[in-house]
């Protein structure tokens, strides 16, 4: 179980006044407007919002893959706006290279930044059991189950050498049983690795089970509209949980 989020001075990542629009067929649509966000060191925050509200766009901005029209992103108070390589980003699609085996896929971020491959291999060998991948280092993606592929993608994201992970619906493509197993596993591994996580999910139960805090987003334009402190609710009875679930669902129907 996560501890309560630490005090304000340990904010690790912050987005301020973000606006993002896209030009599509000669018309501009504003996807994100006046977006402010922060996360503390070691905190687990889930983002829930209707499809198309800009959740993936927001994670891409945090990861530096695209640039905001306005606003800035700070990691440990350093401006990283539009700069990649600072945060571990796992896109909505796992994007494992089909011709590379598990080990080679996980080594990719180290190759990209010309890191020490032998040292990385040693670290990966040590982490494979924790990720349930001990017997799969030499398998190609098509030889792995969906759940195992997501574990490979997650370990690869972790090998980006960052303690902040941005996970875009990492479990969405899995059947409900595998998904439930991986949720339990994810919770455990996040605690063991002491990472900070931003998770985008459509699954309210998943968000409640894993998060210290849930941030709800609206659409057109996408912005954060409500923050729910889950950590403060731990230990409360099931009724509170059910009410919370109904409240979140109600906001989007
Ligand atoms: N490169 C792009 N060019 C034009 N429009 C884009 C681009 N990327 C995203 N959009 C639009 O921005 C909006 C937000 O997209 P985004 O993928 O961030 O939504 P989302 O909240 O992640 O949705 P979902 O829950 O379905 O994954 C959508 O209307 C999408 O069509
Ligand atoms: Mg998305």
Can you walk me through this structure?
It is globular, with a radius of gyration of 18 Å. Strand 9 and strand 10 form a beta hairpin. The protein has two domains: 8-87 and 163-252, P-loop containing nucleotide triphosphate hydrolases (Rossmann fold, 3-Layer(aba) Sandwich); 95-161, no CATH class. It is α/β, with parallel strands linked by helices. It has helices at residues 55-63, 102-112, 117-127, 146-158, 176-193, 204-210, 238-252; strands at residues 11-24, 27-40, 44-48, 70-75, 78-79, 88-90, 164-168, 196-200, 213-218, 223-229. The strands form two sheets. The chain has a six-stranded mixed beta sheet, sandwiched between helices. Strands 2-1-4-5 form a four-stranded antiparallel beta sheet, covered by helices on one side. It contains seven helices and ten strands. Magnesium ion binds at residues 55-56, 92, 168.
Write the layout of secondary structure elements.
Elements: E1 11-24, E2 27-40, E3 44-48, H1 55-63, E4 70-75, E5 78-79, E6 88-90, H2 102-112, H3 117-127, H4 146-158, E7 164-168, H5 176-193, E8 196-200, H6 204-210, E9 213-218, E10 223-229, H7 238-252
Parallel strand pairs: 3-8, 3-9, 6-7, 7-8
Antiparallel strand pairs: 1-2, 1-4, 4-5, 9-10
Helix pairs in contact: 2-3, 2-4
The protein binds adenosine-5'-triphosphate and magnesium ion.
Adenosine-5'-triphosphate is lined by residues 22, 24, 31, 49, 51-57, 92.
Top keywords for this entry?
single chain; alpha/beta; Rossmann fold; 2 domains; 4-stranded antiparallel sheet; 7 helices; binds adenosine-5'-triphosphate; binds magnesium ion
């Amino acid at each position: 179980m996560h501890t309560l989020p630490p005090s304000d001075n340990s904010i690790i990542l912050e987005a301020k006044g973000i606006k993002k629009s896209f030009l599509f067929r000669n018309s501009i649509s504003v996807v994100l407007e006046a977006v402010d966000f922060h996360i503390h060191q070691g905190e687990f925050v889930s983002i829930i919002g209707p499809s198309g509200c800009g959740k993936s766009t927001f994670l891409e901005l945090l990861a530096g893959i695209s640039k905001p029209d306005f606003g800035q992103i700070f990691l440990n108070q350093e401006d990283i706006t539009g700069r990649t390589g600072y945060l571990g980003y796992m896109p909505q699609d796992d994007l494992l290279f089909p011709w590379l085996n598990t080990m080679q896929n996980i080594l990719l971020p180290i190759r990209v930044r010309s890191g020490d491959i032998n040292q990385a291999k040693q670290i990966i060998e040590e982490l494979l059991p924790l990720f349930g991948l001990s017997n799969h280092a030499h398998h190609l993606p098509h030889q792995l189950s969906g759940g195992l592929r997501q574990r490979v993608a997650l370990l690869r994201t972790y090998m980006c050498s960052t303690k902040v992970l941005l996970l875009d619906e990492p479990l969405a493509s899995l059947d409900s049983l595998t998904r439930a197993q991986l949720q339990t596993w994810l919770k455990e591994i996040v605690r063991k690795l002491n990472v900070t996580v931003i998770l985008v999910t459509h699954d309210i139960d998943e968000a409640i089970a894993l998060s210290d805090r849930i941030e709800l987003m609206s659409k057109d334009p996408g912005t954060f509209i409500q923050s729910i402190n889950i950590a403060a609710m731990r230990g409360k009875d099931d009724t509170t949980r059910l009410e919370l679930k109904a409240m979140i669902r109600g906001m989007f129907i």
